[in-house]
Amino acid sequence: MKTPLSDAEIARLLRRQGLHVARRTVTKYRQMMKVSSVEVRRQRTASAAANAAASSRG
Description:
Elements: H1 7-16, H2 23-32, H3 38-57
């Protein structure tokens, strides 16, 4: 499972594609779309992976 991207990583990827936006702009739109911060999303990803591993054991 791939880990969630931070706002800075998203801004960097967009810049590579020719769209120059600041990290705080990415943050603004992430919050407007009600997407959790990267820390919360990483916690959810980790707990989901742990739950999947536990259920596959038995």
